[in-house]
Specification:
Helix content is 35%, strand content 24%. It is elongated, with a radius of gyration of 20 Å. It has helices spanning 2-12, 58-65, 87-105, 127-138, 142-154, 185-191, 203-210, 232-241; strands at residues 19-23, 28-33, 39-45, 70-72, 77-83, 113-117, 156-160, 171-173, 176-182, 198-202, 217-220, 228-231. The strands form two sheets. It has a six-stranded antiparallel sheet with strand order 4-5-3-2-1-6, covered by helices on one side. Strands 7, 8, 9, 10, 11 and 12 form a six-stranded mixed sheet that branches. The chain is built from eight helices and twelve strands. Helix 1 (2-12) crosses helix 3 (87-105), helix 4 (127-138) packs antiparallel against helix 5 and helix 5 packs across helix 7 (203-210). The model has no long low-confidence stretch (mean pLDDT 94).
């Protein structure tokens, strides 16, 4: 297992925007390489992602800080930028995680499940849509709300899905499932640095897909810097408006 982890670290060091996830039933560590993959962001799961009985204690947090980690993503993770281009640098992070993982997650680092993703970017961006969402959050006018609806229907999003490609439930509202879409890759990482399975879809396709599951709401960029939520009555109105659209999916 040790050699396998070393080989994954070496591949990550040669992969722009790659992701390497180390995980067990309690928690996880994610290494996300940058466009120049000699550097990576190493993030340790914070209490947002951990079971109630396995929250990180103050003592554990202080231990992690001794290695140079600081809180990130609104205190949801603890991370730092690391160097991984040389074997010596990869030795350093391997040794570090070998020490930290069992003290945080009650299992040796070599026993965790490791998964390497080498093609994680969708290429989707929605700068005009997110700009309008921000404007609506600052100035809640009827015209801006209608503009958000119109832009949503025509824009392309990343719908969080399950293995069977059904929409992934991320929360509940009044005992009804809530689903999630993302405007870009960065917003997925803000929600969960491990990423998620996603399907690229037009907004009107997203509406038609989730309406089959009686949604309580659709959350846009959950935990993101620019986020919003479409509630059941809004989704029903949009569903009626989208019936005239083609079912063609973006490539």
């Amino acid at each position: 297992m040790t050699q396998y982890i070393y080989s994954q670290l070496e591949i990550l060091a040669q992969t722009p925007h790659g992701r390497l996830v180390f995980q067990n039933v309690i928690g996880w560590v994610v290494l996300q390489s940058y466009a120049r993959p000699h550097q990576a962001l190493c993030e340790i799961a914070g209490n947002t992602y951990l079971p109630k009985e396995n929250k990180i204690s103050l003592e554990q947090e202080n231990l992690v800080k001794q290695y140079g980690y600081t809180k990130r993503r609104g205190d949801r993770t603890i991370g730092k930028i690391i160097q991984i281009s040389t074997s010596e640098e990869r030795d350093t992070i391997f040794t570090e995680l070998t020490n930290l993982f069992p003290q945080l997650y009650q299992e040796s680092f070599e026993e965790c499940t490791s998964t390497l993703y080498t093609d994680v970017l969708s290429g989707i961006t929605n700068p005009k849509f997110t700009k309008t969402m921000r404007a609506l959050s600052q100035k809640r006018t009827h015209d801006l709300r209608l503009e958000v609806y119109r832009m949503f229907i025509n824009a392309t999003f990343l719908l969080a899905i399950n293995q069977d490609e059904s929409p992934r439930e991320v929360e509940k509202l009044a005992n009804l499932p809530c689903f999630a879409v993302f405007t870009d890759d960065k917003s997925i990482r803000s929600w969960d640095p491990r990423g998620t399975l996603w399907k690229k879809m037009y907004g009107f396709e997203v509406i038609n897909t989730i309406m089959k599951h009686n949604p309580g709401s659709l959350i846009i960029n959950p935990r993101g810097n620019i986020s919003g939520e479409l509630y059941k009555n809004e989704l029903q109105t949009l569903a009626k408006a989208t019936k005239r659209f083609s079912p063609k999916r973006p490539s």
